[in-house]
Every structure is written in C-alpha cells, then in structure tokens.
Design goal:
Layout (H helix, E strand, L loop, with lengths): L1 H15 L22 H8 L3 H11 L12 H16 L3 E2 L7 E11 L4 E5 L6 E2 L6 E4 L6 E10 L5 E2 L4 E2 L10 E5 L22 H10 L4 E5 L2 H4 L3 H7 L3 E5 L8 E5 L1 H11 L3 H7 L8 E27 L10 E7 L4 E2 L8 E2 L2 H20 L7 E7 L7 H8 L8 E6 L11 E3 L9 H10 L3 E2 L15 H6 L4 E3 L1 E2 L8 H14 L15 H17 L15 H8 L1
Parallel strand pairs: 6-9, 9-10, 10-12, 14-17, 14-18, 18-21, 19-20
Antiparallel strand pairs: 1-13, 2-11, 2-13, 3-4, 3-13, 5-12, 6-13, 7-8, 13-17, 15-16, 19-22
Length: about 550
C-alpha cells in the first residue's frame, strides 16, 4: 500500500508540473449561462479543463499501471488512485463499510495449454485447432477440467425472439449438444424487425451464450466474420487470451464458450455437407430449422481457476433537497483494461489510453467540478468507476445488482467509454437517449452547446449493448453513453470516420492504444461539460426519468418502482 502511495505521489508531482489551460477554454460550451443551470452551477461547469483530463489519462495509461488488468496489481493501483481523487474532491465514500471500494467477487479462468480442442467432421480427418489463431474458448462452469464429446448442431443466429416472430431453435432439444451459430442477427432495414440496421441484444455474443446455456447446450461455437462482428479476429483473440474473469457462476453454464475463425467454420461445413455460405444464407429465413451437421466437438478443457476480488470505486455527493436527496443521478466509466500478456513478444502492455482512461479522466473531472460547486443539485450525484468491463461488463453488472441507492431511485446513468482526444467536436452521440423520457432535455442541451446529435454511426455494431450503461439499463435505470460524433472543427466528416476506422483496425484492444503528448483533450472536456449540464438538470427535475412506453427496459423499471 505504501508503494502504491509513493507511485501516486510521484505521478501527481509530474502531472502538476504540466502547463494549465485557462478556465473555460474547453470549447463546445455555451458562451452565455444555460437557462437550465443556476449561475453557481454554470461557474462550476466552466472550470472543467481538458488538461485535467490529460493528467488522469497520462497516469492511468502509464506502463507502471501494467494495463489495469482486472484483479491485478495495476488495476488495484488504478482503483486506489481514483478513490484518492474522489476523497480530494470532497466526495463521500459509497462503497462497502464506509469505504470507496465496492468489492466485486470474481473468478479468473485461464485456459491452459493442456486443453485439447478438435472438430470431427462427418467426412475426413479430425481438425485439431490451434488456440488463438483458429479458436478461443473458455469453460464457463468454472471447473478445472471438463470433457465434451458432443454432436454439433447449426442453429443459425441462435435467437429466440417471440416479439419478432423469430425462433432459430424451433423446439428442437439441444440438451447436451454443441451449437454452431452466427454472430449478429438477421439483416433488416425494417425498424420494426430487430430494429432494422441497429443491433439488438439478441445479436450480442453474451446473449447467445446465455440462451444456449438456458436450453441445456454444453458448448457454443460462434463463427467470426469481420463484417458481422464489426471487428477483426485480432480483437477476438486479444479479448479472449490470458485470464478471463467472470462473476461467480449461478445457474446453467457452458463447458465450452468459444469463437472459431471463419476459415475453420468453412472447412467444417464443407466436410459435413452444405457450404458455410449456404448455411449463412439459410439462417436468414424465418423458416430456418436447426441442422445436425453429423460432426462432433471433442474437447478436453483444462483451466486454472482463481477466486479473487476486484473493486468498483463509488463515491457520492449528497443532494441539497431533503425530499430528493435519497434519489440520485449516476455517472459511470470503466477503469480496467487487459493488463499484461506475458506470452506476447515485444510490447505486451495493454495500456488502454483511449479505452478507457479517457472515460475515467472525464469521470474524475466531473467529480471535481461537482465537488467544487458552491451549491449542490437537489438529488444526490453518484460516481462509479467500475471494473471488469473488458471481461463482459462485470463490475457494472454487480453494481446494478448491488447499487448504493436502490435502482428505482436512480434517475439516470450517464456513461463515458472511449472518448477519443481528437479536438473540438461539432457533434455528440447519445445513442439510447431517445429511448428515455429525458430525450427532449438532451436535444435542448445539445442545441445550447452547438452540438449536432449524430445518430449511431455504426448501429449494426450494437454499441448500446457493449458498454456499462447496458448493465444499468438491464435493472431498469434509464442509461446511455455520451461520446463525440465524427465531425470535428477544422476537419471534414471523412477525417473523423478515417480516425475511427484506423483506431478499430490498428489500436482497439491492442498494446498500441497508448497515451501520446499530442492528444487533444478539448473534445473530452466538451463531453464532460455537456454531461455536467445534463446531470445537473436530471438531478433537478421534479420527477424521476423513465423509459419510453414499450421499450425493452420499461418492465424492469416498473419492477423497481413497486
């Protein structure tokens, strides 16, 4: 602990020697006080400073924090740093037993080299697959060893969605089977059918694993295809190598939760009957019926199991209204990344500068601005830096199930994840805000900030279901993330799109996601100011925010209000 304190102190000395911006130089904020913010609150908003965010990102993304791995030394150091900042800003602890830390019980699963993984097709020789290059797999039962020798059944997209009149299972008994399935969901331009081009939760790999386990399957082989997954195989490989963390298992679980490379799926299909193209085409029809390929998975899963705890870091600024102070607005950002990969040659530290030291920097700057405001909003303000996002939204899932204030009394969650330091934005993305009763306020505030609301640039990627706000939405809390769009001051839209494409292809979940001195945090501060205004307004409304009628999360909200 003393070693951690010395490292933090040394970094603060370095950080504080950096040049400071003039107050209010962030750009993107209104030049006149907002009609929705009282004067003292607007003054606090004006103190939000891009260089403050830079200091936090520089520290959190430094090699000394070893990629902030979940349950690892670097992750623990990051949590201590964040807690120290919350205390410095005058926020009260909202974790366990009067501390800033909310303990999250986790299980670390490392698939060991002794694992054997072979596909045995209907015709020809068994295909012994090479880990990381051809497949990745984890044993979700959290046992040291599991054996699977089971038939492989192709189940299309592996979706059962009665509201869309879609059922890939058709009542077929898949207990004890291994299910071959596609990522994503049936393609559509009809907003009433799987929300058109926008990905729903049915398209996420997490849903597919969950549904297969519920139906009694022992394994899943997810076929990776770059366009359908919206990211290349390298992302799958890096996200599923080394130790994988999970909440302690409750209920049914898969012995084999895996992805296989498209080339592998093609070879398996060709040796078992129809081509992979024919299988993929057949999956797009409502008349699709599960197909037993006559092939088997022969796997011996060997895992190292580690029980441990990681921390969500949670703080609160108590509201000023006695009648409303037991309600809250929540800000979230995940602080974890992938740690260090000892088996990787060269640079093997996953620093996670943009993903998500930026979101943490914004969260901390918001905490400082709220904590330093001469007045307080009517409702309380919660700040949560969560762990385990890269492992499957684990910290936010635990927070949603164990909130410091009952979920029914949390009016809104505003989340920050991967806010690229590219300069002054002319757009904001708030995908999911339109699903809430708060959206008219979001529209009005964006106009005040001279920010055009940009629709989700890649709705097919399902970003709404890939960040921590989703965990809070699942328990009924109206939630969405705030991020920049693609149009930045001084650049055409194509420049922003090119930057996004370059990041996804070359840096996303790669060791190259590092801090650079030339990063421009003006946009991050603009998103912080925008979120400050929204949060203050949400905390001042006469009623709690809700979901639009008929939204998929409305029923969860109604349950929390009972």
């Amino acid at each position: 602990m003393q070693g951690m304190a010395r490292i933090i102190s040394a970094f603060l000395v370095v950080c504080l020697s950096l040049p400071s911006w003039a107050e209010g130089a962030a750009g993107g904020a209104p030049k006149t006080p907002s009609v929705k913010l009282p004067g003292p609150a607007y003054s606090a908003l004006e103190t939000i400073n891009p260089e403050h965010i830079r200091w936090h990102v520089r520290f959190l993304a430094h090699d000394l924090l070893e990629g902030r791995g979940t349950g690892q030394r670097g992750g623990d150091l990051a949590a201590e740093y964040i807690a120290a900042q919350f205390a410095e800003y005058g926020l009260k602890p909202a974790g366990d037993h009067g501390t800033y830390m909310q303990k999250v019980p986790l299980v670390g699963i490392t698939t060991l080299p002794e694992t054997r993984f072979a596909l045995v097709p209907k015709r020809g020789e068994a295909m012994a697959l090479k880990p990381l290059d051809e497949y990745v797999a984890y044993d979700q039962t959290q046992q040291p060893e599991s054996n699977v020798d089971a038939e492989i059944v192709f189940v299309g997209y592996g979706i059962e969605a009665p509201e869309y009149n879609w059922d890939d299972y058709k009542g077929v008994d898949v207990r004890g089977k291994v299910l071959l399935m596609l990522v994503n969901e049936p393609p559509s331009d009809d907003p009433k059918f799987f929300k058109g081009k926008a990905l729903t939760y049915y398209g996420r790999w997490t849903y597919k694993y969950e549904e297969a386990a519920r139906k009694g399957a022992v394994g899943v082989l997810l076929v990776h295809q770059t366009q359908m997954a919206s990211y290349p195989w390298e992302v799958v490989r890096n996200s599923n190598s080394g130790e994988k963390s999970a909440l302690k298992v409750e209920g049914p679980a898969l012995k084999v939760a895996s992805w296989i490379h498209l080339d592998v799926a093609s070879r398996l299909a060709s040796a078992s009957g129809p081509s992979i193209d024919k299988l993929m085409t057949s999956a797009n029809s409502r008349d699709f019926h599960p197909l037993n390929l006559g092939a088997r998975l022969d796997a011996h899963m060997v895992s190292r199991i580690r029980n441990f705890e990681a921390n969500n870091v949670v703080a609160i600024l108590n509201g000023s209204d006695r009648k409303l102070a037991d309600e809250a607005v929540l800000y979230t950002a995940h602080y974890d990344h992938f740690g260090v990969r000892p088996d990787m040659p060269g640079d093997n530290i996953f620093n996670g500068a943009e993903d998500n030291a930026t979101g943490c920097g914004i969260l901390l700057e918001l905490a400082r601005a709220f904590g330093g405001a001469p007045i307080r909003p009517r409702r309380s303000i919660l700040f949560a830096a969560v762990t385990g996002e890269e492992q499957g939204l684990l910290g936010s899932e635990y927070l949603g199930k164990h909130p410091p204030i009952p979920a029914g009394k949390i009016s809104l969650d505003l989340n920050y994840d991967d806010v690229k330091p590219l300069g002054a934005p002319e757009e904001v993305q708030v995908a999911g805000a339109e699903r809430t009763s708060f959206y008219p306020n979001v529209e009005a505030t964006s106009k005040e900030f001279r920010l055009n609301i940009r629709p989700d640039a890649r709705p097919e990627a399902g970003h709404y279901y890939r960040s921590d706000h989703f965990s809070l939405a699942r328990v009924g809390i109206p939630s969405f993330s705030i991020n920049e769009g693609m149009k930045f001051k001084g650049h055409p839209e194509s420049w922003g799109l090119d930057k996004e494409r370059e990041y996804v292809e070359k840096h996303y979940h790669q060791p190259s996601d590092e801090y650079r001195p030339d990063m421009d945090f003006v946009g991050d501060s603009a998103m912080a100011r925008f979120g400050f205004a929204l949060g203050w307004e949400a905390a001042s409304l006469p009623k709690l925010i809700g979901w639009q009628k008929g939204d998929e999360f409305e029923s969860a909200r109604l349950k929390t209000e009972k």
